[in-house]
Design a protein that fits this description.
Layout (H helix, E strand, L loop, with lengths): L8 E17 L9 E14 L2 E6 L5 H8 L7 E6 L2 E2 L5 H9 L2 E4 L13 H11 L5 H14 L16 H13 L5 E5 L7 H18 L2 E5 L3 H7 L2 E6 L2 E7 H6 L4 H8 L35 H5 L5 E4 L2 E3 L9 H7 L35
Parallel strand pairs: 3-8, 3-9, 6-7, 7-8
Antiparallel strand pairs: 1-2, 1-4, 4-5, 9-10, 10-12, 11-12
The chain binds adenosine-5'-triphosphate, iron/sulfur cluster and magnesium ion.
The site of adenosine-5'-triphosphate has 12 residues, from β2 and α1.
């Protein structure tokens, strides 16, 4: 799924979020109740036909961003514009019409969203019924069309989820997401639970669908090699905030934010990697000023006092740091003495990159199509 720059149109973004926040009130009574700022002040745009990769350590707020954008969670603050409409407070029929029909989610584990007692044909028809699309014959034909589009035989409509392999189930998850003709798919770790060879097939399928249907993706993943390969741009999250957004290659070759430099250095030899200090702080009590300051190799006094705002550094590129670009990839290893702390970014690729997907179009869907 190498991003095809020709699929990106610049006629205004399909989605724009400004100052998006999602806070959860945690246990306790009255004033003792704590607030967990899972997402705080996130601003991002996704162009038509564009893949924006969203990366960050576990608990950094990636899933919460996705769920808030699609309005599964009401935002605590900020605005979301989708296909030119403000959907921040949409509800009822407007929410169904403006958001749920044109923006879909693909989950890590499709099994959890499939009813084991429902045939796949019924599961695929469900969104059409909810959105009152077509009559019975048109729905049957649309289900068959979707099954073929994702590389499955139309006879799959009569099967139950537990009769399918993991890869086949994810193809059903993608078909279900596509059936209402969306313009944006939020894919939350869609390949994380699959074998490597099946991952490659799903990644290639998503790439083919993007080219064919002009889809935009918010692709949430831990896998830095994958995100670099598939994304037009990448957004980096840490403790609920965006650290940097940049074209994928630029982020990994010339990162401006120290945390992006940490991630980019994972592609280098072990001795050239930048290892941040200590552990990720609790999201219940994030550090003052810059949330990355307790782990940042170049933090200084100002970083504890002032929150760095996300500012445009170049067209299509923003960074939230008081000293952007100061921690350089090539010289970083010499200037920073890494502590032997373990990265909590668990799926960071080792020195050897995982197998790359076979180029799109050359993967026969063996084991998938029956
Ligand atoms: N419904 C909820 N209620 C309370 N806290 C939540 C809820 N959902 C998420 N959180 C908290 O918000 C923070 C962000 O969680 P989120 O699941 O968005 O992170 P993530 O980046 O997707 O992590 P992972 O990579 O592990 O999937 C975490 O501290 C999490 O515990
Ligand atoms: S603002 Fe300061 S602590 Fe935060 S990333 Fe930049 S240099 Fe590091
Ligand atoms: Mg998540």
């Amino acid at each position: 799924m190498n991003p095809d720059r020709r699929t990106v149109s610049h006629d205004g973004p399909v989605l724009r979020a400004s100052g998006l926040a999602k806070h959860f009130r945690m246990g306790g009574l009255g004033r003792s109740r704590k607030v967990l700022k899972a997402v705080d002040g996130v601003s991002l745009e996704i162009g038509r036909g564009e893949t924006l990769g969203l990366v960050g350590e576990s608990g950094s707020g990636k899933t919460t961003v996705g769920r808030t954008l699609i309005r599964l969670y009401p935002p605590t603050a900020g605005t979301v514009e989708f296909e030119g409409r403000d959907i921040t407070r949409s509800s009822g029929a407007r929410l169904r019409q403006d958001v749920r029909r044109r923006m879909s989610m693909v989950f890590q584990n499709p099994s959890t969203s499939l009813n084991p007692y429902m045939r796949l044909g019924e599961a695929l028809t469900e969104p059409l019924v909810v959105h009152r699309i077509g009559d019975a014959a048109q729905r049957r034909s649309r289900v068959a069309e979707m099954l073929e589009l994702v590389g499955l035989d139309t006879s799959m409509a009569d099967r139950y989820p537990q009769e399918l392999s993991g890869g086949q189930r994810q193809r059903i998850g993608i078909a279900r997401a596509l059936i209402t003709d969306p313009s944006l798919i939020i894919a939350d770790e869609p390949t994380a639970s699959l074998d490597v060879s099946v991952q490659a097939q799903i990644v290639n399928l998503l790439g083919d669908l993007q080219k064919e249907l002009g889809l935009a993706y918010l692709f949430i993943t831990h896998d830095l090699a994958l995100v670099r390969q598939i994304s037009h741009r990448v957004a980096v999250m840490y403790l609920g905030r965006l650290m940097e957004t940049a074209p994928a290659d630029a982020l990994f070759t010339e990162p401006l934010h120290p945390y992006s430099a940490v991630l980019a250095s994972m592609h280098q030899d072990r001795e050239h990697r930048i290892v941040p200090r200590g552990e990720i702080p609790s999201p219940m009590s994030p550090p003052s000023g810059c949330v990355f300051r307790t782990r940042c190799p170049i933090a200084r006094e100002q970083c504890a006092e002032q929150v760095p705002q996300l500012r445009e550094a170049a067209p299509g590129r923003s960074v939230a740091c008081h000293f952007p670009g100061e921690l350089k990839l090539d010289t970083a290893a010499a200037s920073v003495r890494p502590e032997p702390a373990e990265l909590t970014f668990t799926d960071v690729p080792p020195t050897t990159a995982p197998p790359r997907p076979v180029p799109a179009g050359s993967v026969p869907h063996t084991g998938e199509k029956e």
